[in-house]
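If you are new to this repository, start here. Below is one unmodified record pulled from the training split, so you can see the exact layout before writing a loader.
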Amino acid sequence: MGNQAGQANTTGYSNVLIGNQSGYSNTSGSSNIMIGDLAGRSNQTGYNNIIMGQAAGYTGTQLKYNVFIGDSTGFEQNNVNASKNVFIGYTAGKKNQSYNNVFIGNQSGYNNINGQNNIAIGDKAGYQNLASQNIFIGASAGENNTDGYFNIMIGRWTGKKNTTGTQQILIGGGAGGSLTTGGENVIIGTNAGASNVTGTGNVYVGTSAGWSNTGSKNIFIGYKMGYGTFQTVSNALVIGTDVSGSSPLLYGEFDNQKLKINGSLGVLADPNSSYGVYIDKSSTAGSGYGLYAAAGYRGVYGYVNSSGTGYRYGLYGYAAGGEYNRGLYCYAPTTSGNYAGYFNGNVFVTGAITESSDKRLKENIAPLQGSLAKLLKINGVTYTWKNKKDIKIKVSDGKLDEEVESKYNFSEGKQVGVIAQEVEKYFPELVVEDENGYKSVNYVKLVPVLIEAVKEQQKIINGQDEKIEDMQKQLNEIEKLLKKSLKRNR
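And here is the target side for that same chain:
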């Protein structure tokens, strides 16, 4: 409908063309909706487009899977690979030559040419953008971005001056509003990080947080924390509010490994201004410790030695009233006999226990071989642990002594498991020997072995299935031959 609408159409079908010269050049393009003066005028073979607005999608000849709504949206798009775009608003995505972009708002994504997978919503959002994988939401959000990629900018004028800064998250009106080339910043809050131009790796959270800071690799958290203060610092942790001023509640220096608390800290009690750190364990009898820190022996040492009812905590972890109760062990080297966490008894967790297994952290990766055959030689058994008095441990002279009570606090009752010595024969890397000569098994690491064993067994089963199928076919043939033979002999 309209003057010369679909003028050149030959084999195109299921098109809706409304407006002066809309779809004028279309020949075989199908399933298009083009509404408006000159809408999709040059399209010839493109299909599945929705184009509405004066001169929207004007130039493209092979447009496909695009939605252009608004005057001159996608006007210059003519690249054969430019598809699956959504442009809504006056001249949105006007110069686009790429794909998978969403531009909504007047002049949003206006100059985008090769950028792909971008989302720009708002007046002039992503106006100058030429890069990919950006999200700009808000009037003029990311307006001047050219080569910056993997950015998320949400809010009016957020990241407006950014040109080449990459991998940033800016949320809030005017957040990171002065950034040009700075990258990898996380800025959340109205006018947060407003003065920073080239800083990188900053985290500003809170209204006007880090407003005056121009450095890099900082963390500012709190309302107006860093407004007029800490202008040039880098590698700093600053937590507080405008009430704190130049003395925030927390101040740290990442490069110097320093942390300062501008106030009193209370543990299990209200803070006491007489102490930097106040820990109230006065209910603990004798020489118990609420918190003990010492260099050269234990970084943090918690000790409880009191009887009675109620909870006892060594290091905010449960510890019973015995002499050697341990709430928590921490760091230790990974060589044999050392443990970052040593729990002499059962362990209960409310969350998951995971183990680092990222391929990027590994080398010399090789598949397990012969897992099934090896597992068949390892027995699953039931057992009970020996009484403590029957277990030998080393004494100071390095010899095993039967008279010294064991440190092994085993579970009572029947247990299920394997024998370490059997496992060691076939999987020595899963067995560890402690200082007393007793062996333990890494049960978790048996899982990959079980996986491969199951796969090997399944391969055998599949092979047997194939053989059975072949044999069945042979039997069927023999049966046919016998039937034929019987018929001839009648």
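Two things worth knowing about this chain: The longest strand covers residues 236-239. DSSP finds three helices and 26 strands in the chain.
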